[in-house]
Amino acid sequence: MIIMWDDSTERKRSDYDLRVSETHYRRLFETAQDGILLLDADSGQITDVNPFLIDLMGFSKGELLNKKLWDIGFFKDDEKSRVLFSKLQNKKYVRYEDLPLETKDGRSIDVEFVSNVYPVDGKNVIQCNVRDISERKRAEEAIRERTAEMERFIYTVSHDLRSPLISISGFMGLIEQDAQAGDLERLKNDLRIINKSISKMDKLLHETLELSRIGRVINPPEDVPFRDIIGDALGQAEETIASRGIKISIYPDMPIIHVDRMKIVEVLVNLIENSVKYMGSQPNPEIEIGQRIDGMDRIFFVRDNGIGIDPSQHDKVFELFYKLDKRSEGSGAGLAIVKRIIEVHGGRIWIESELGKGCTMCFTLPLDNVG
Q: Which residue, of 187, 213, 239, is where some domain finishes?
């Protein structure tokens, strides 16, 4: 018996499987959360593009089809384009982990770019996958900045804590000598200095802990008139202000702000006391508390007519334990704490000052936090 093999069923199954595969690929192509470009491997012209890349670049599909990569924001440099295609032809694969992509409206986006060459119906096709890595890069940069900040923080804390420890260690040795010699006056002096060093260390540790907690522990924000915050701050700083006979001027028409009330009061107390500390021999000391509008920013300020701060020191004063005058009281942590509180509220702080011309400490709160 001779059996005739009819392969039509097999061909139908193959055609069906092919259509299913193509439908599946098309669904992935259209819904992918990465950009996908298909190029003619000979001409380099775009033959297809998925919706994600259209949204990413801001072009319509019609504006992208039949264009080349260097016509639409990729590889503006012709030489780089030739190198790319040479690599693709030789290696069939090219990867750029960090490539600047220019959108239709001129923005630059960092992308990961991967290209593969593969045959389709006897003709080579290039598939380019484009992934937006802008958010990842921002996160990596934030981690680098945070790490650098932590390193500076640890160095500063360890450096400043060593000073009272060295003092305590030195005078412990003197105590033994003075006790053996029966010199009670020197013994009392040794103990006084040791006690002072212990108090200094305790204050440094307390303020270091407070700085580390800001941002992790915060009271619920509330709507509060800025004038009420000023009143709270002046009440806390009343004794310091009165001791120098300082005139306080408050601007009218203060806004309502949405903040952690206690923390912003702490900011103002710190700034007021800092102004008092550096008033110098000013015969008519005065502090102004007010606001001004600069573009989209509402800028709050504490201004004094004291000795001022040299511009070279403007950024340094916000560093932990930094002191303009090493002989002054305090640990030098106040402005570092103030800066952190303002930043946690989404604002920024800076100094406007010159030597001998007073000082203005300015800080902002975003407009969406301002009533």
A: 213
